[in-house]
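writing this on my phone so excuse typos. first protein, seq and then structure
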Amino acid sequence: MRAPIEAIAWNDEYVRILDQTRLPAEEVYLECRTLEDIAGAIKRLSVRGAPAIGIAAAMGFAFLAGRISTANHEEFAAQAASISSHLLATRPTAVNLRWALDRMSRIAGQADSITVPELQELLKQEAQRIHAEDIEINRTMGRHGQALLPDDAVVMTVCNTGSLATGGHGTALGVVRSAVENCKQVFVAACETRPLLQGARLTAWELLHDGIPFELITDSMAAVYMKNRRVDAVIAGADRVAANGDAANKIGTYSLAVLARAHSIPFYIAAPLSTIDMTTASGKDIPIEERAPEEITTIAGRRIAPEGTGVWNPAFDVVPAGLINGLITEKGVIRAPYTENIAAAFK
């Protein structure tokens, strides 16, 4: 299997981001140098996936803070807070964004016992540490998750949860990747994931890159696929997991969870502890981002619905904890009762 794709990278001159909106037709890398560059890349989904959004925000924060030209700690802190606030507003659902920016802000708010240049260097190191930790966490999650799969497994996925969505290995797709590395024969049924087709455009691209066998299906084929063909597990990622185990993920994930339960197929969420928000009690408290109507009324810029068509376009849905067989994390597979066992994982 080939080395994972590097979707985000630090450069002292810019933050390098693979523009996922251009895939699979073009492999184009953005050189983000301004707040507008970095915030825009997150908002328009050039970078996406909760862990990757957190990494991009951390690197963007460190890079921009490194360009603040003041020796005064109060002025530095004020400008750094403005950068953090702007980035935080880009994607409301993905909790890793807030988690990463909180972590960076704690560094930026250190007492003035060190100089601003020393503080800027610490921020750079912290952003790079967040990136490296994510890769290691994903690999640990993958080892725990692959143990749930038989030696010859068919896994259904939704959206994209691989190297493109993380620091390098993947969450749900990282489980698949780890199983293959463990010499298991894994076949992936990848749902296309309307309306932005992350499964068709990105997961298929990654699986081809890695040489992992798969076939692409439309979202509406999932039920009949489960009924007429073989699926050993459905594994999805998450943009936020509540303290009670409810999990928000790309729209269509809830449907897969319901279908998996109807067909007696285990349904798992693969997500690092940083995606679990202990300040969110349940799924009903998770803010759900709604996106532009054009994502549904057009495909590749071509209108498919008549002018004047009303649209409801939530980017995410919430899977109730009762439909989840386990949360695959770096601390192991957390199972019900989720409220107690999630809390224990954080201790």
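second protein below, same order as before
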Amino acid sequence: MPVNFLNLAGLNVTDFKESETEYHVRATPVAVSRLCPHCGRSNETVSHAQRKLVIRDIPAHGKAVVIHLDVPRLKCRPCNQTFTAMVPEVDTGREMTERLARWVGRQALEYTYADIAKQVGVNEKTVRNIFDEYVASLDMQFKRETPVWLGIDEIKLQRFRAIFTNLQAKSLIDMLPDRYGTSIVAFLASLPNKSRITHVGMDMWRPYRIAVQKVLPNAKIVVDKFHVVSKANVAFDTVRRKIANADKGSSLGLKRAHKLFAKRKNDLNDEQYLTVSGWLNSFPELAAAYDLKERLFQVYEATAPEEAWGKYLNWESTIPPEMAKAFRPVKTAFRNWKPFILNYFDDQRVTNAFTESFNAKVRAVYRNGRGYSFERLRAKVLYTDMFQKRVRVQEKVRVRKQKFEDVAMVRFMCMGTAMDDEYETRIQTRVANLGVDLSTLEQAFDSGKF
């Protein structure tokens, strides 16, 4: 009988049996806690009865491990309550070892709840509850650097979820289960040193703007360029579908070419350019919509807000009446979000466009992956060590020059503050976690190692 089979210092193995699917181990505790959970006393408890517990442990050699544990039931004389003695290394509430609970939490990042439940011999609800607690503990321990440029975007995984990025480091900070205004406010308020945020890049979702103005009143809001020009692509697509519906003979061809139409003219190769030109020459209305779409990009070639606004007004004046409805969302965006769109043309060109590739790949993983829930996907993305982007940073700190003498300490306590000459400035180096490096994460997606 392998007496060290469990490798748990708190349990003595007394018997061992093996079946085709499980190891059954009988054990007794080396010691128990006699502390009464009802009144907190431990020196006035007596043995009351014996209880046999069936405890699960980490699987071994592809088999579930079941521990049959004899534990005393105790009675507390002062409060007259009975309770089961606590055994070190055993979570009696869940009927498993503490190390199994930790193992289940880690494994749930990789495998489905059903797979883990079957392997261990518990129900899926237990696995889910353990995982929720595991992620909550990771959330409390995990520390990220608050960025100077913060990005707010969203990704649709069944429903819209808000994501936060470090725009300068091109890294992911966090993902929320929704994008409600209250959730955004709570997240922003939780950021340490949030006063260091100078710019916030976002799309045109009003709750984002309200939340930032409430929590970060001194930060400059910048509407992301991608979300503005994408409205022109949508407007062009509206015209394309209208033409395709009217001309059934060209419908399939126009549909197949939609990805080429979405690309910038300068990004087309020779073959693609010939295909696009052929369609534009065949349909003047399509050509006019394509020209409008392309010329909106030219607004972003401006070097100052005033120049950009002038370019936009000129662009708007050239919209043909028959396309006014299709391009109305572009006009509405510029009118409702003018100051925040024009902030892009100030001294800093803040953009969150780099997240689009990440969003597309996360959607694919979520849709085609191994049963990922949003919670598991978020935890795996945020807490996998190899994805973290860490850098060494130097910062100035004020420290006392030397230990206070008694007289100096009295003077300090009486004045309520220390004299300036009692401090000196030093350069301190520390490791800062900038969040999840998106380029590293995308490589994991592409390689199938995620």
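DSSP finds 17 helices and 14 strands in the chain. thats all i got for now
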